[in-house]
Specification:
heterodimer, A: six-stranded mixed beta sheet, 12 strands, B: mainly beta, seven-stranded mixed beta sheet, 0% helix, globular
Chain lengths: 110, 113
């Protein structure tokens, strides 16, 4: 069945550091890929998406590129802020439902 | 557009009691989804509706769970004879048919004592 694997966390960075959160997936066909973010005390918010190979999704300085050859969708940001502290979930969409990774906790210190 | 809303936000119940949660999707969205999220894990799919039709149910959805969307608008998720293992965050999401992105509500946190 479909599955999503995220890098082991948590991740702790200083402000303005470079962020990478790894995500790989297993799926039949060519699913759409997403990153969702969950800020403390809030619900899941869609951060970015990509629907086909080599697409790059971007939002709020975050980027991720759909790599079919490596079945990956790694999340990157060039300079993180304290306000980026949250839990980040990679997900794929297949046959109408989302399959999520286990989430990566990001903490950014001033 | 007020987003997806869920009620109640928190529910504490004793083992063996029945509970019901409500989800109101984004008004123009015809698809509605239920997920369950336990601490430290990503959400897991439970079931989804297109309009009033329930199109898929996960094996996670035991016979004690039932979901409805009678008029194709709001949905309810009922858990009968709750068990401690049912303690989790129950998330609702909605989407437009043909669009993969789903928009989530704030969730209902269930604690079974």
């Amino acid at each position: 069945g479909d599955s999503v694997t995220q890098m082991e966390g948590p991740v702790t960075l200083s402000e303005e550091a470079f962020l990478t959160i790894n995500c790989t997936y297993t799926a039949t066909g060519y699913p759409s890929l997403f990153w969702y973010v969950q800020y403390p005390g809030e619900g899941l918010q869609l951060l970015l998406k990509a629907t086909k190979a080599d697409d790059k999704g971007s939002n709020k300085g975050f980027e991720a590129t759909y790599r079919k050859e490596t079945t990956s969708f790694h999340l990157e940001k060039g300079s993180v802020q304290v306000s980026d502290s949250a839990v980040y979930f990679c997900a794929l969409a297949s046959y109408g439902k989302l399959t999520f990774g286990q989430g990566t906790i990001l903490t950014v210190h001033p | 557009d007020t987003g997806v809303s869920q009620n109640p936000r928190h529910k504490i119940t004793k083992r063996g009691q029945n509970v019901t949660f409500r989800c109101d999707p984004i008004s123009e969205h015809n698809r509605l989804y239920w997920y369950r999220q336990t601490l430290g894990q990503g959400p897991e799919f439970l079931t989804y509706f297109q309009n009033e039709a329930q199109l898929e149910k996960s094996r996670l959805l035991s016979d004690r769970f039932s979901a409805e969307r009678p008029k194709g608008s709001f949905s309810t998720l009922e858990i009968q004879r709750t068990e401690q293992g049912d303690s989790a965050m129950y998330l609702c999401a909605s989407s437009l048919e043909g669009k993969d992105e789903q928009y989530f509500g704030p969730g209902t946190r269930l604690t079974v004592t």
